[in-house]
Design goal:
The complex is a heterodimer of chains A (about 525) and B (about 375). Chain A is of the alpha/beta class. Chain A has 18 helices and 20 strands. Chain B contains 14 helices and 3 strands. Chain B is globular, with a radius of gyration of 26 Å. Classes of the chains: A alpha/beta (about 525), B mainly alpha (about 375). Chains A and B meet through helix 10 and helix 11 of A and helix 1, helix 9 and helix 10 of B.
């Protein structure tokens, strides 16, 4: 009575139905629409790339396929049959396997132990027998790995291999890889792609998320593009090129009418030279970044998320240890040049450097969520109290000023900032940072998650600072905003500068291309 | 249905699976975080929880003793307030428990899970006893008391600083570390008890029974008064310290977000060390009050589990020293009252723990309903349940 074969028996799949199809998927988080009416289709024996800027909704979409989120609207079809995926277990039942950006492996176990961990096949726990089966899979797809090696002895690429073998061993037919090449060297990437091609030949369906255009072009059959949660379209890789994809990805130029004045009193305020640092695993994050932030102008920093923006700003603020490089601050009052490298935030302040920093993680770094607005204002000034005690009067006055000047919507200045909406939280943070009359003002994604009105409040505040002669550094993700707000834009890719452009003349596509340059082509520090 | 035989069962199964899935579209209920709640509503929920707990206790008591629930309550109240002595003992125990709770609070506000108060109190008490035994005849009473206070606080502070040091520099897990420090303290105390008892019973006995050297002086007619007054003064000081001092502010910032602390230039290591120094020193002081002001002897049971109960007191009061007066009173009242129940009705001693357990379970449970609500599955957005 059913024409389609049961999903639980994939060997019988003969129909031409696509392996997986999404129709009209919508997912919202509060007022934020992460995915709006997205359609997606992957055939058997095909590699589909999903392309999109940060926050375009790629990961949310993949999380719905792998059962981590449940869509608000829309349907998912596997082999032409509608299915409901409510949990990762369901996803596994439909033979969907996801390889996350952050590996989920037990460090003290070997590869084989990790692969069979949590398997419920009713068999005896016989590692040797399992090992043989896993070795067969490795041979089939050309994985080179020592299955008896413990995870903590493995390189990032080996760990990723274990993750892929794990989902394959569990019988996944649809594999989702979330930015698999972000952590790999070019050689490792080639090896991974060779394996992916072999998997495609074996009839697997592969969805790969990546930002790197040349990889998209070299590996995939088709490319689907998302932009700001909207589904833009799907093209055949053979019939497209980098500039068409960039255009789809960045979208049409939208005029925002942000006021931009000509820079005045420009002088070098902060000179950053050859910054290098490594992450916890010892992998390089900043690979020799150099730039100059000038007073009276806004320097934009563009780049794919995780290209080193956070580390760069934190290094300047004295929060990120560096392995190499200098940060020179030219003090406008004393005329002295100070090196800020290896100084703590307190030491930087004691040098008379007025540096304000609006970090990306507002409630996790810039503010304390459970404290009220007054106490958050006090973060910068609490040391001024008499003796060992706090003086809450000045911060209370400041809180009231910011609430009325920036139109912060809050029941009172005694409300914990955690209870405020994103835009109001940001106004509180930016307001406090501006109140200390900075000479350098750094803001990381200051309008992320904010509505239009709040965003414009923030742009105006940044412009005001610029007109006061402050050197403003603005890390942004929306290219339209960067192009209209900034004077110059520094583009970074994988921890290196890929270009410095004039925001008044550059086009969106040019910036987009610089952003997606990889380290190997874009390793140089002098852009244009 | 006229499919070939081999496929039919598989079809039926998959159909059932799919039908089942359609029905269970959403889980039965899910948990949603609440927005702010006015204070009267949150206190309403808390009071309702206590009332509910009392009903369960009554039911439980009725099942076990076949007595009128009112009689059970009467026994409980009698156990806590029945005689003048009982009232004094209730107040003293409340004060001592409150003292330990005050001591652990700065650490807890910093999210440093100091469960080593027991050991810190013991070390303070041990040093205090040592002073009473060894220095009693070498100096004036006033000086001796001063030395006892300083030495006990120092001992507690060192016991607290060791795990803090390892936490600050190598991020060693403070929970395990402070817990293990308890066992070391217990062993040291039992070792000294053996030595001081002359290698015999292992019991030290009342120190300076006749001379009362090193005993905390009486304030008014009662021995307990000075203890209680000291701890009440401490409560006020700690309230001010946590709420109005720069140190208190730094503790809150470090506890809420270490990243924010680093961002504004707080030296996190220094704050951890300083706060544990304070926490340990206060524990040591309570140890001194226990030995010099209450028991006049030292034993491995001197702290009497207060180091652990204090965690609950502090937590239930949301780390507010003034609320801790209430929560420590509640817990001591429950302990005394339920002990009386087991005596009067001839029940096992464990009954006291069970009764306290029920009440505390409800009180802690009520916090869940203050912070979250359950959304039942319905056609629309779901209905709220308390």
């Amino acid at each position: 009575m059913k024409e389609e074969n049961p999903v639980s028996d994939p060997t019988k799949v003969t129909s031409n139905a696509p392996a997986i199809e999404l129709r009209g998927i919508t997912k919202t988080f509060g007022s934020v629409v992460a995915n709006n009416n997205v359609n997606l289709l992957v055939n058997r024996g095909e590699i589909l790339s999903i392309l999109g800027e940060n926050g375009s909704g790629k990961t949310t979409l993949m999380n719905m396929i792998s059962g981590i989120y449940f869509p608000d609207k829309g349907q998912i079809f596997i082999d032409g049959q509608e299915v409901l995926i409510r949990s990762p277990k369901d996803a596994f039942k439909y033979r969907i396997g996801m390889i996350h950006q952050h590996f989920k492996l037990v460090d003290l176990f070997t590869a084989t132990e990790n692969i069979v961990l949590g398997l419920e096949d009713g068999r005896k726990y016989d590692l040797a027998a399992y090992g043989k089966e896993i070795a067969a899979i490795c041979e089939q797809y050309g994985f080179v790995i020592d299955l008896n090696k413990k995870i903590y002895n493995m390189s990032v690429s080996e760990k990723q291999t274990v993750e892929i073998i794990k989902v394959l061993y569990r019988g996944a037919d649809i594999l989702i890889l979330d930015e698999p090449t972000a952590v790999l060297t070019p050689q490792e990437t080639e090896t991974l792609f060779a394996v992916l091609r072999r998997m495609r030949e074996a009839g697997k369906s592969i969805i790969i998320i990546t930002h790197k255009l040349h990889e998209v072009l070299s590996i995939s059959n088709r490319v689907s593009v998302l932009c700001k949660g909207q589904y833009i379209g799907t093209v055949n890789t053979a019939e497209t090129n980098e500039s068409e994809l960039t255009e789809m990805m960045v979208g049409k130029k939208i005029s925002l009418n942000i006021h931009r004045s000509e820079p005045k009193g420009v002088e070098d305020r902060l000179v950053v030279d050859n910054l290098r640092c490594v992450d916890r695993e010892g992998l390089p994050v900043l690979k020799g970044i150099s730039f100059t932030a000038k007073s009276g102008e806004i320097l934009g920093i563009a780049g794919i998320a995780g290209s080193g923006q956070r580390e760069l700003l934190e290094a300047i603020a004295g929060l990120q240890p560096l392995t190499e490089g200098t940060i020179t601050y030219n003090n406008p009052t004393s005329g002295k040049a100070e090196n800020l490298r290896d100084k703590t935030p307190t030491q930087i302040r004691e040098l008379g450097v007025r540096l304000s920093f609006v970090p990306e993680d507002r409630l996790g770094m810039g503010l304390v969520g459970n404290m009220d607005i007054v106490d958050n204002m006090m973060l910068r000034s609490y040391r001024k109290g008499p003796l060992g005690f706090l003086n809450r009067k000045p911060p209370a006055t400041l809180a009231d000023t910011i609430i009325s000047d920036l139109e912060v919507v809050t029941p009172s200045s005694k409300t914990p900032v955690r209870r405020l909406s994103g835009g109001n939280v940001q106004k509180v943070l930016v307001g406090r940072e501006i109140a200390s009359a900075p000479t350098v003002f750094m803001a990381a994604y200051p309008v992320r998650g904010l509505d239009i009105n709040s965003s414009f409040t923030i742009y105006n505040l940044l412009n005001e600072q610029k007109e006061k002669g402050v050197a403003v550094i603005f890390v942004g993700e929306d290219l339209d905003v960067l192009l209209e707000l900034c004077d110059r834009i520094l583009v970074i890719g994988s921890g290196a500068v890929t270009g410095v452009v004039d925001a008044r003349t550059v086009t969106k596509e040019q910036v987009g291309l610089l952003m997606t340059k990889t380290a190997q082509e874009g390793g140089t520090e002098d852009g244009e | 249905m006229e499919n070939n035989q081999s496929n039919a069962p598989a079809d039926a199964v998959s159909e059932a699976v799919i039908a089942n899935e359609k029905a269970i579209h959403e889980p039965l209920f899910h948990v949603v975080k609440r927005d702010a709640m006015p204070w009267y509503k949150s206190w309403g929920i808390r009071i309702a929880a206590v009332v509910l707990a009392m009903l369960v206790v009554a039911l439980f008591g009725f099942v076990l003793t076949k007595n009128d629930p009112i009689a059970i309550y009467r026994v409980m109240i009698d156990g806590a307030f029945g005689t003048e002595n009982r009232i004094w003992s209730l107040l003293l125990d409340t004060a001592l428990l409150l003292g330990v709770a005050l001591a652990v609070t700065p650490a807890f506000k910093m999210r440093f899970w100091n469960i080593g108060a027991e050991g810190q109190v013991l070390m303070g008490g041990l040093i205090c006893a040592a002073c009473m035994l060894k220095l009693g005849d070498k100096m004036s009473t006033g000086l001796l008391l001063l030395v006892m206070v300083v030495a006990s606080m120092l001992a507690g502070a060192i016991w607290g600083l060791i795990p803090a040091f390892f936490k600050a520099y190598w991020n060693a897990n403070e929970t395990l570390f402070t817990l293990m420090m308890n066992y070391i303290a217990t062993s040291i105390v039992s070792c000294y008890c053996y030595i001081w008892s002359g290698g015999g019973s292992g019991r030290v006995g009342i120190i300076n029974r006749k001379t009362k050297i090193g005993w905390l002086p009486n304030l008014g007619s009662h021995t307990q008064t000075l203890n209680i007054v000291i701890i009440l003064v401490l409560t006020v000081i700690l309230f001010i310290y946590l709420r109005y001092s720069k140190h208190g502010y730094e503790i809150s910032v470090v506890g809420e977000s270490e990243n924010t602390a680093r961002y504004i230039g707080i030296n996190v290591k220094k704050v951890i060390l300083r706060t544990m120094l304070l926490s340990g020193a206060l524990c040591g002081l309570i140890g001194m009050l226990l030995v010099s002001g209450t028991n006049h002897t030292v034993a491995t049971s001197t702290a009497g589990g207060r180091g652990f109960t204090a965690i609950m007191v502090s937590w239930l009061a949301k780390f507010n020293p003034l609320y801790m007066i209430l929560t420590s009173f509640l817990i001591v009242f429950l302990q005394k009252g339920s002990k009386e129940i087991s005596t009067i009705f001839g029940l096992n001693d464990a009954i006291g723990d069970i009764v306290s357990g029920i009440v505390i379970f409800f009180v802690i449970g009520s916090e869940f309903f203050i912070n979250y609500k359950l959304m039942l599955r319905t056609k629309k957005s779901g209905k709220e349940e308390k």
